[in-house]
Amino acid sequence: MSFSATGQSGDFHYLVEFLLDSTTLTYADEDLSLRDGAVTGAFYSGRLPPEGTLTRTLGTFIEPRESVDAFDVPIDNSDNSIAELINNGTFANREVRIWLGEGNNKANYSRVFTGFVAHPNGVSWDERQARFTVIDKRIKDRKVLPLAASKFTTDIFPNIEKKNKATPIPIVYGNWSSLAASGVSIPCVCTDQRATGSSFKVAGHSLKGIDRYLKNASVLTGRSGASNSIRGVNLATSTFDLSGYTYNATSDTVSVNCQGLQSANGTLYELPGDILRNLLTSYLGLTTSDINGSSFNELTTKTSGVSCRRFIKTETASDTVITELLNETQVDLRFVDGQYDPKFRKLDSSSTRTDYQESDIVLIDEDNEQADFHVTYDPDRFYTNQIPANYQYDPIDAKFLNATTLNNTSAILRDEATVERVMNFYWLFDKTIVENRIRRELVVFSTEPPSIDLTLTRRAMLKNLGDQVDITYNIFDNNSFQIRRMETNLGTMTTRIQAYDIFTDSWGGWAADGSPAWAAA
Predict the structure, then answer these.
(1) Rounded CA gap, 286 and 345, in Å?
(2) pTM of the prediction?
(3) In the 3-class helix/strand/coil scheme, how is 79-96 assigned residue by residue?
(4) First-last CA distance in the chain
(5) N or C: at which end does the chain have fewer Cβ atoms within 10 angstroms?
(6) Is 108 strand, coil or helix?
(7) Contact, 10 vs 26, CB < 8 A?
(8) Other CB atoms closer than 10 Å to residue 72's CB: what's the count?
(9) What is the pLDDT of residue 511?
(10) pLDDT of the residue at 516
(11) What does residue 357 show for φ and ψ, rounded to 5 degrees?
(12) Which residues pair with 240 in a beta bridge?
């Protein structure tokens, strides 16, 4: 639902909805009757106190992971009615939605937090208040990859080689063909070892294609019908047989060059937005209503040409896999209006940025007209003028095959010191793409990026993490900042933000010397 408040009326409220099994309980900071569409409406009982702080953070630049602190919802229980509801109903693990907005039209409210009542120990009450501890809903979306249900078990694979019993069936994203960087191949698992030949499986899903089969890094060239041959290739099940080739589970490694998971229309998942969408929907169990489709489409457009690949066999938290993808491709994954909403770190057009000036900044000392405004250079200490990087990860030998080091010579001379920060690339594998990514990091962090902390009036209350705003105050003249942290005061309906200056640091598109046109940036 799109928020369209002007921020001028002052009639701001916050709402809390408990989605129980048979009913939805609705509360506000005062009695409200809200229109929801042309004819429907709902009454929100004014049992919420005008207090509390909702804190959201997008994480650091190298750990871009949005999180919301556990939020305590106090509800007036002076008439004991909430205690009766708790006694007669089930609140544990039930969904809770928190909205901010203005007026009497639900269209002017935005869902800023979706969670669930903590269990155990998420409910308490006394004769004055009932309190519910609400935990970020996205905790439930986390999984371990590959999924626990996708393992090499003897029930399904009775002749599975001993070393791979009860191990995960891999997930393969991207281009591992023989023509891709370094021609890195991925290991296969022998599911049935026989004297006359053996069966192998590559992944727990279909593959787009296999172009080369290898044993101990030597290419197998046997043709169908020959005594030594590759037979029964099935891309749908990612399986094949080797006939006439000996295989020793202790000393031999069979691998393939292939193209991994593909979409229903046969497109290889290799762009960051496409992979991220597939991870969320195919492996974390989200539906299309849980993600902002237009934002994912926009991300795919903005990262066109940035190919990624990953072989996932070792059990890894989905948070780790996704965070590495976001960091390497410079994407932030936000949660807007109850949906996962990715945003590429690129300067927005001026028409989509909101401008804030002196009148929008809250005073902390009215007598001396001192604004609640603070500037810090590089509070996370990400400054670097030299980046050694490792890339082209080899899943067979479990090591990176290539490395490169780039530096900002002028910054090293200016600061009379070399400050190194190592980057490991598990998703990006092409040398040109990796080095372009490193150059963007050096552009941003070879100077200390300014970070501002300031409290803004209600006009800024419903900005989102990752949004960009223009600040004209103090030394800044229409400078653009990206919001990384927000603290919304539910009593005063003001918002304290922490944001980084991404305009003076040239964060976004850049052009190499000699580019024929800006379109080639």
Answers:
(1) 24
(2) 0.88
(3) CCHHHHHHHHCCCCCCEE
(4) 35
(5) C
(6) helix
(7) no
(8) 13
(9) 53
(10) 61
(11) -125, -170
(12) 200
Q: What is the DSSP letter of 168?
A: B
Q: What token pair was written down for 226?
A: 């020959």
Question: Could you give the count of Cα atoms lying within 13 Å of 22 in the half-sphere of its Cβ?
Answer: 4
Q: CA angle, corner 77, sides to 73 and 81, nearest 5?
A: 115
Q: What is the pLDDT of residue 4?
A: 47
Tokens of 436: 């372009």
Residues 6+ apart with CB under 8 A from 326: 64, 65, 276, 332, 333
Q: Report the candidate in 41, 261, 65, 285 with the shortest Cα–Cα distance to residue 173.
A: 261
Spatial CB neighbours of 234, under 8 Å, sequence gap ≥ 6: 240
Among residues 268, 128, 152, the alpha carbon closest in space to that of 202 is found at 152
DSSP string, 309-339: -EEE-S-EEHHHHHHHHHHHHTEEEEEETTE
Structure tokens of 499? 């944001």
Q: What backbone torsions phi and psi does residue 163 show, to the nearest 5 degrees?
A: -65, -15
| DSSP secondary structure letters along 42-77 | EEEBS-S-S--EEEEE---SSS---EE--EEEEEE-
- Contact by Cβ (8 Å): 460, 489: no
Retrieve residue 150's tokens.
């996708």
Please list the rounded mean pLDDT of every run of 10 residues in the chain (521 residues): 49 93 94 84 92 87 80 94 94 94 89 90 95 90 93 94 94 96 94 87 97 94 68 95 89 96 95 97 94 95 94 95 95 90 89 91 86 93 95 95 96 95 96 94 89 92 90 92 92 92 54 56 49
Which pLDDT score, from 0 to 100, does residue 5 have? Answer: 46
For residues 55 and 495, give the distance between their C-alpha atoms in angstroms, rounded to a whole number.
Answer: 10
Q: According to the model, what pLDDT value does residue 508 have?
A: 45
The CA distance from 268 to 278, in Å, is 11
Write down how long the chain is. Answer: 521
Closest CA relative to residue 113, chosen from 183, 232, 14, 208:
14
